[in-house]
Amino acid sequence: MARIHPVEYFAESIINPNAVIYPGDKEKGYLGEDGKSKMPDYNEVLTVKQVTDLATYIASLKGQNHAGH
Predict the structure, then answer these.
(1) Do 62 and 2 contact (CB within 8 A), yes or no?
(2) CA-based max dimension of the chain
(3) Which residues have a Cβ under 8 Å from the Cβ of 25 and sit 6 or more positions away?
(4) CA-CA-CA-CA torsion for 31, 50, 59, 37, nearest 10 degrees?
(5) Rounded-to-integer distance, Cα 26 and Cα 23, Å
(6) Phi and psi at residue 37, in whole multiples of 5°?
(7) Is the torsion defined by CA of 17, 20, 26, 32 positive or negative?
(8) N or C: which end of the chain has fewer CB within 10 A?
């Protein structure tokens, strides 16, 4: 994912996992029965700095092979 998305995409996904829902996500098991992401939002858990740091870290994984993780 890091190869095709900018850091802002990851930050938004952490804050609002329902911002982008792709066709086929339900079949992959990513969505609940209500059609929303199973991933919880982290608005009340992480600070803005923590979200920024986490999104930056995820985006930095571009060159590594993390298939299956």
Answers:
(1) yes
(2) 35
(3) 31, 37
(4) 10
(5) 8
(6) -60, 140
(7) positive
(8) C
Residue with tokens 């803005």: 48
Which one, of 66, 61, 20, 56, lies nearest residue 39 by Cα?
A: 20
What's the full length of the chain, in residues? Answer: 69
**Both tokens of residue 25?**
């996500």
**Per-residue confidence in pLDDT tens, the chain, 69 aa:** 777 888 999 999 999 999 999 889 989 999 999 999 999 988 889 999 999 999 999 999 976 554 544
